[in-house]
Design goal:
By secondary structure, the protein is an alpha+beta fold. 40% of the residues lie in helices and 27% in strands. It has helices at 41-52, 56-69, 79-95; strands at residues 4-7, 13-16, 28-34, 71-78, 101-106. The protein has a 3-stranded antiparallel beta sheet. The longest helix is centred in the last third of the chain and has 17 residues, at 79-95. The radius of gyration is 23 Å and the shape is elongated. Bound molecules: L-tyrosinamide.
């Protein structure tokens, strides 16, 4: 809403022009994959395809970036989506006995 009118004690109208928009963007969180020496490259690619909907080519590119740089961006989400993905990936890796770790950080 751009403008809103109010009446003071005298009945005079005042127009307030500076209202905060009602629709605020939610804070976003980066979901990050961390490199390690043991998780197979194919498993990391599988994770990126399964949990982050990446294509084969994109998953391969991200996996190599993590491998070479120590960490890499898997996706950007609202808090609850990011938290759910981090939990699901870490649980999936643990169940497959790989040390792959996934974390999140505020944008
Ligand atoms: N560094 C691992 C290897 O050489 C591959 C790897 C890539 C592991 C990305 C984790 O997030 C990761 N097998």
């Amino acid at each position: 809403m751009a403008h809103m009118s109010q009446h003071d004690a005298w009945g005079d109208e005042q127009v307030i022009t500076k209202y905060k928009p009602k629709t605020e963007k939610p804070p976003l969180y980066r979901v990050i994959l961390l490199n390690d020496d043991f998780t197979p490259m194919d498993f990391v690619i599988l994770v990126l395809k399964k949990f982050f909907m990446k294509s084969d080519a994109e998953a391969g590119r991200i996996m190599l970036a993590v491998h070479n740089e120590g960490a890499g961006l898997a996706g950007i989400y609202t808090f609850e989506v990011a938290e759910t993905k981090v939990y699901a990936v870490n649980e999936f890796s643990r169940r497959h006995k790989h040390p792959l770790k996934c974390t999140m950080e505020k944008e």
